[in-house]
Amino acid sequence: MDPRLFEAIAGNDKNGFINLVQENDNFLEQRTVSSRSTVLHLASRFGHIELVMEILKLHPMVGAEDIKLETPLHEACRQGHTEILKLLLETNPWAAVKLNADNRSAFFIACCHGHFDLVKLLSNQSWLPGLEDERFVPTCLHVATSRGHTGVVRELLNVLPHFVWKVDGNGYSPLHHFCNSRHLEITRMLLKLSADLALQFSNTGYMPLHLAAMNGNTLIFEEFEQMAPISFHHLTRQGDTHYGAFMWLVSAFHNTDFFHRPDQYGNTLASCSL
């Protein structure tokens, strides 16, 4: 890409951009060397809405892919540019179903980064309910849950409530992922849909509560006690209980200070077991 063109886009110099295009309309086809980004990719990334509008008017290449197979919609969703996403969707809504080289959609990117307004905008698209490929929407719910994006999780559950039962490649449901974190409000939302979610096994034979016990997430126990008390009576597929896992740790580390090392919240395994 001509350095003058890149500088005009990065600096939001609309007049400079127009002058360059009038000088040579092939500038609209230029791409960066390393990432193969188009002018629309760059304008969407930098959040320059007037430049995006001008580019869409001259050369609406919304579905163009860079070296990672990402479209300008991926860029807008990564950076959280809601108004630019609206313009791109108005021009070509079907570009939003494209997946990048990692099989991630623009919708996944928005969920991953917790951009609630963008998730809400995309969740209202007519094509979303049909996208039930496990590489796509279910993974969005998994990642939003594990990262604690409460608003995004709530929106996904409103639009696609049955996706709480989807599992990833490890057999983990969104509740399994949550039990590796400390976002209690998300636990309430998931268990409120169905207490039976607490009884799902992962591929390794663990229920969500087993993961919570293994990770020392004691605050989660109160939520399970109130909303899914039966889960405390279930074994892993290997026949272990939460108590059994703790006793194994006792036997393995009884000669060390392992049980008295505080976590970031000041809790120790010894205090959590009392």
From TrEMBL:
PROSITE patterns cross-referenced by the UniProt entry: ANK_REP_REGION, ANK_REPEAT
Record keywords: ANK repeat, Repeat
UniProt repeat feature ANK, residue ranges: 68-90, 170-202
GO terms under cellular component: plasma membrane
Pfam family, one: Ank_2
Presence of keyword Lipid metabolism: no
SUPFAM superfamilies: Ankyrin repeat
Name of the featured protein: Ankyrin repeat-containing protein
Organism: Quercus suber
